[in-house]
Design a protein that fits this description.
- This protein has helices at 16-22, 49-52, 66-81; strands spanning 30-35, 39-44.
- The chain is of the alpha+beta class.
- Helices cover 33% and strands 15% of the residues.
Length: 82
């Protein structure tokens, strides 16, 4: 079991093992789902389309095929697991 300590200001540092497992990065949002009085589940919040709109476009960049995009995503996932 991985643990964290709550500060006097109510802050937590998510342990690195948990961040890595959930693929969390600086600026990512996390939801706490409370079950009863004694349990909470931590869940990454996915980004909405509005939050990421336009981030893929760079002036002068050539268009990529679906196959190229899929290959790039697969490569990035392999790098993260490595």
């Amino acid at each position: 079991m991985v643990t964290a300590t709550l500060t006097s200001k109510g802050q937590l540092t998510v342990p690195k093992a948990v961040r890595d497992s959930l693929h969390l990065h600086t600026g990512d949002r996390i939801a706490f789902i409370v079950h009863g009085d004694a349990e909470a589940v931590l869940k990454p919040v996915t980004k909405s389309v509005d939050e990421v709109f336009g981030r893929l476009h760079s002036p002068g960049q050539r268009r990529k095929s679906v196959e190229e995009m899929n290959a790039a995503v697969a490569k990035r996932m392999r790098e993260r697991k490595g």
